Amino acid sequence: MHSWRVLLLPYEERGDLYRRYRLDEPWDGPHNRALARESVREYRCPISEGPEAGRMAGYVAVLGPRTAWSSGVVGRVPPAPRVLLVEFPDSQIPWLEPRDVGVDEARHILRPGALYLDTLFHPAEVPAEAMPEDIDKLLIGPDEKPGAK
User: Fold this and answer.
1) Could you list the residue range(s) of the whole structural domain that residue 75 is in?
2) pLDDT value of position 81
3) How far apart are CA 5 and CA 60, in angstroms?
4) Which of helix, strand or coil describes residue 104?
């Protein structure tokens, strides 16, 4: 399995890095693991600091039932505006690791003032007055309750 961040490299004008990545080996295989030392500014969270910031996933997808990605089909429009990606300052996830976050972890990342994408090209900010139930609406939809089926 490979990260969506790797698969988007050619579209981020990082075809050089994509061509060096070996899709026939695991993301953490001997060759690919060496690429993790490369900094990818497109995936760096702007408020992250330090030498590792460009090597970590500054943006992660929110996965789970009733999320934008619950269908397993990338690009399918969810029935209501849902968070697609969240900005993850100081993430410890290497940019090439195929790992994202679930709803519970996203609740800790999404806080008033946090940035997220509700379409692939539409950044938005969590309102300063947002309450936990408002954040749940962004993650799993306006008519759903956490834990509901």
Assistant:
1) 40-140
2) 61
3) 9
4) helix
Mean pLDDT value across the chain: 80
Assigned domain for 28 exists: no
Is 147 contained in some domain? no
Q: Is residue 146 one of the residues assigned to a domain?
A: no
**CA 144 to CA 66: how far, in whole Å?**
8
- Identify which of 99, 102, 92, 91 has the alpha carbon closest to the alpha carbon of residue 26: 99
Helix, strand and coil percent figures for the chain, each rounded to 5? 30, 15, 60
Number of domains in the chain: 1
53/73 Cα distance (integer angstroms): 29
Nearest-angstrom CA–CA distance, 149 and 145? 9
Measured CA to CA, the distance from residue 23 to residue 32 in angstroms comes to 9
Q: Is the pTM of this model over 0.85?
A: no
Within-domain flag for 99: yes
